[in-house]
Amino acid sequence: MVERLPYLALLVIPAVLVAHGFRKRRRLGKPTDRAFASKLVWTSVGAATAVVASIFPPVWVFVSFTLHGGRIEDNMPPGYSPQFILGALLVGGAFTAISTAYGYGEHLDS
């Protein structure tokens, strides 16, 4: 069952985010046209992928290592490798840095 958790999360997270996006959009009285729906779906899938690939594995390792101790490799979620987790953290950190720098520059121009 635990091995299927990432796949389940890839289905549930986008569904929840899309439902929330439509509900909020309707509550604001704005139209929910095809362009809005398309962007909402793609960003929701992207957010779910980021959670499953970049956030879930390091949190799993941290909690498991805290509870059980031992080696990092012994506390990995099923189906993940240390190289994948380090790579995901590197990519996620790079995106965070780029997004922050872009937001800072955009804020200065406004």
Q: What would you note in describing this structure?
A:
The chain has 110 residues and is an all-alpha fold. The protein has one domain (2-109). Helix content is 78%, strand content 0%. The protein contains three helices and no strands. Helix 1 packs across helix 2 and helix 2 crosses helix 3. The longest helix has 35 residues, at 34-68. The chain starts with a helix and ends with a helix.
State the main characteristics.
110 residues, mainly alpha, 78% helix
The main pleated sheet reads as:
none
pLDDT averaged residue by residue: 85
Estimate the global geometry from the Cα principal axes: flat
Distance between the termini: 50 Å
Structural class: mainly alpha
Please give the number of β-strands: 0
In which range does the helix fraction lie? over 70%
Quaternary structure state of the chains depicted: single chain
- When the domains are counted, the total is 1
What is the H/E string?
Answer: HHH
- The number of distinct helices, counting runs of at least 4 residues, comes to 3
Radius of gyration over all CA atoms, rounded = 18 Å
Q: Assess the beta-strand content as a share of residues.
A: under 5%
What ranges have pLDDT less than 50 throughout 5 or more consecutive residues? none
Can you describe this structure in just a few lines?
With 110 residues, the chain is mostly helical.
Helix and strand topology:
Blueprint: H1 5-27, H2 34-68, H3 82-109
Helix pairs in contact: 1-2, 2-3
